[in-house]
Write a structure and sequence with these properties.
alpha+beta; 4-stranded mixed sheet; 4-stranded antiparallel sheet; 21 helices; about 45% helix
């Protein structure tokens, strides 16, 4: 009976592989309707989820059956079965194990050497099998999975197994941080429960928040003295022609760096002045090439060849030479032949150096941030860039500060900071605290009459931290203020009636692709179309929140949805 069942299962998989290959071949060059293309992509994505499950169960089957002990003839029979196995082929592929010498030492060796899976991936897959399917004791007996809550979620029909695998890897990698005994088991169970809730409620940000939970777990066990002993700027030396540095900072210090990088990304700030940064990049390239810094590159005569406009250079080369400057033998006054080919020993300009000459916005973000940091360091103490001091925002949860006095402060990018760091930060210049209540309602900033004032804009960007659309990762500095109440229809310009959206989602809201929802006493939320969210729930983007904040936000969104549908909460869908 078992052989018959397994033969049928293997036959279905072989047929499925052929069907998938045939389906892809049919549409590869076909002129198909856009709706069918979208449906095709949806099915492929769903198949990817099923294969993520199947890969782990396959690893468990290999280990459970001792498949690495199959003899050489059995492996040959499997290879001969091919893509379209007959009943006889499937019968021969059942194989037989042997206690003698086998081609593979263990299951990891079978995965690596026979299936071609990288050894690290093979070992990780078996570790995930322990976490999500079943452990194997030293005596060879099967036992319950190490992470039972995630194991149940892994097989849930509507759950994305790839998110569960990601959470499992992170939690498994932190086993030593949970500690021994019942306390360790309780901590592992709690973090599993939070991970499952995140995967179910807002899968778009689940990976980030589970990683944050693990980070908090590890950082929470380390005393401040240990952290301070490891922070600093370390020079690692020259490698492959580049100088390497390692920067380690506290979370509150990291916010200063992040705030500076945001200013570099914003062309409206003095720190992000594109013309100045682009000039500095070109000077660095000139210095690396051994050329002196150009006194004025508006003058083409002083501009290095690699910095000139190629079109202008070509036009100049096409012009006839001025014969008044030439001697009768065709040479200039210095005796050089003006028509000769350039010397072969003069290397051409490095074509890849053009990366520093492209428009600043087209540079790699890492390179753009480096140039901004170098420009700031060069101008320090010289009187340049006045008014470009970096501002850092600290968000304080007033309710939590009063109730517990712990874990009440985060930076505007969502990095938790200790109570001591928060108190020290608000004493420094350039720090602006924004006080919120538990539902992100701004308490200490007022309202303007017509447009959002600078103070309101700063408050909104600090409180929201980024685009309001669920799962969007666009930070606040690159988002647009959205007025949810139309002024011409008697609307109020109130902070509670404003939100942030990136350009794409701002346009999308006004095109009616989704709705902003004004909730009394709370931050605005988002209502997605039924095709995306058939249950029509209220959503909050938790990408920029800490895990604890995300948990509270998701709980409030779920509660608000129930109250709204029961008619117990004042909710207004903003006009597009």
């Amino acid at each position: 009976m078992q052989t018959s069942t397994s033969t049928e299962a293997v036959g279905k998989l072989a047929e499925a592989r052929s069907l998938i290959a045939a389906a892809w071949a049919d549409v590869a060059d076909a002129d198909l309707p856009a709706g069918h293309a979208a449906y095709f992509a949806l099915l492929v994505e769903q198949l990817g989820q099923e294969f993520a499950r199947a890969q782990l169960f396959a690893a468990d089957l290999l280990r459970r059956t001792g498949a690495h002990q199959l003899d050489a003839d059995s492996f040959q029979a499997i290879a001969d079965a091919g893509e379209h196995p007959s009943a006889e082929d499937l019968a021969r592929a059942a194989g037989r194990t042997t206690m003698g010498r086998t081609p593979y030492k263990n299951t990891a060796g079978l995965l690596h050497n026979w299936l071609g899976i990288p050894l690290g991936t093979a070992r990780d897959r078996l570790a995930q099998t322990d976490c999500l399917i079943a452990q194997v004791t030293t005596a060879g007996h099967r036992a319950a999975p190490l992470l039972p809550q995630l194991a149940a979620e892994f097989t849930a029909p509507r759950s994305d197994p790839r998110l569960v695998l990601s959470a499992s890897r992170l939690i498994h990698g932190a086993q030593k941080d949970f500690g021994p005994g019942p306390a360790g088991q309780k901590a592992r169970a709690n973090i599993q429960a939070e991970a499952v809730a995140l995967i179910r409620e807002q899968p778009a940000t689940a990976r980030k928040h589970v990683a944050d939970l693990i980070h908090q777990l590890k950082s929470g066990k380390r005393p401040l003295g240990a952290l301070l002993s490891e922070i600093g700027l370390f020079k690692l030396g020259c490698r492959k022609g580049l100088e390497h540095y390692l920067l380690r900072v506290l979370p509150s210090q990291a916010e200063v760096v992040d705030a500076h990088l945001r200013k570099v990304d914003n062309p409206k700030t003095e720190t992000g002045n594109r013309e100045e940064l682009h000039r500095q990049a070109a000077e660095d390239l000139a210095a690396e090439n051994g050329d002196p810094a150009p006194p004025d590159w508006d003058d083409s005569e002083t501009m290095p060849d690699w910095a000139q406009d190629p079109k202008e250079a070509d036009d100049a080369a096409a012009e006839e030479p001025d014969h008044e400057d030439l001697d009768t033998d065709g040479t200039d006054h210095e005796g050089f032949d003006v028509d000769r080919e350039p010397a072969e020993d003069i290397p051409p300009a490095d074509p890849e150096a053009a990366e520093l000459l492209v428009p600043f916005e087209d540079m790699r973000p890492e390179l753009r941030h480096l140039m901004g940091l170098l420009a700031t360091l060069r101008s320090a103490g010289t009187g340049k860039r006045r008014g470009s001091a970096t501002e850092v925002g600290i968000i304080i949860d007033y309710d939590k500060m009063v109730e517990t006095g712990q874990d009440f402060a985060v930076t505007i990018t969502g990095k938790p900071i200790s109570a001591g760091e928060a108190r020290a930060a608000v004493c420094n210049a350039g720090i602006y605290p924004v006080v919120l209540n538990g539902r992100d309602r701004i308490l200490n900033l007022g309202r303007s009459q017509r447009l959002f004032s600078k103070s309101q804009a700063k408050a909104l960007r600090t409180a929201r931290r980024g685009c309001a659309f669920p799962g969007c990762t666009m930070p606040a500095e690159r988002c647009e203020l959205d007025h949810l109440d139309a002024w011409e229809k008697g609307g109020r310009t109130d902070i509670d009636r404003g939100d942030l959206y990136c350009t794409v989602h701002h346009i999308g809201r006004h095109c009616g692709l989704f709705h902003a929802v004004k909730v009394e006493g709370s931050r605005p939320m988002v209502l997605l179309p039924k095709s995306v969210d058939p249950e029509q729930r209220l959503h909050i983007n938790t990408h920029f929140l800490t895990p604890a904040e995300s948990k509270r936000a998701l709980a409030w969104a779920a509660e608000a949805t129930q109250l709204w549908k029961a008619g117990k909460l004042e909710v207004t869908i903003a006009e597009a």
